[in-house]
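Morning. Coffee machine broken again, so started the prediction first thing and wrote up yesterday's gels while waiting. Chain of 171 residues, entered below exactly as on the submission form.
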Amino acid sequence: MASKLKTDILETVSGSGTIALTNQLSGMTGASMPSGSVVQVVNATVVANQTSTSTSFVQYSALTASITPTSTSNKILVMFVGEIVHRVTGAANSHFRGQIYRGSSAVSSVVNERIYDYGGSGIHHEMQLVMHHLDTPATTSTTTYSLYFANTAGANSDVRNGTITLTEIKG
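Came back before lunch.
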């Protein structure tokens, strides 16, 4: 059973005054929030395709998101969702690799996706890539995150139609 308390006036413990409840949350800052609270959320979405044959990691340059943390002790939850495509021709192996970067530095573990063309006629494989990483940038400077990917085997790999969400969490 839910309870509801309604009142017009709250009096201080000492009885020396009253407490106005109107707009009490408007003065709340990131510093006054409890640990684990969401401080801010940044989101970016793009409908763009990028193809790569590089065996080294390259940035999915159509999609980046930047956030300015409010405290060096806060964490950033990075979430990427997008589509990947990789291709195999003639009894070959295809290996897609994805990783979240902060600026030009890798911060997440590598996600691997492999396919093999046993029949020798080629494969065009499409799937959704979902990655999450909880980062500790230890800065209050603007910080940029993006997806990097590599095609370490096979004809080529694509990343397309992505969304990246950055959530600052109070440390």
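The chain has a mean pLDDT of 87. Going to sketch it on the whiteboard this afternoon.
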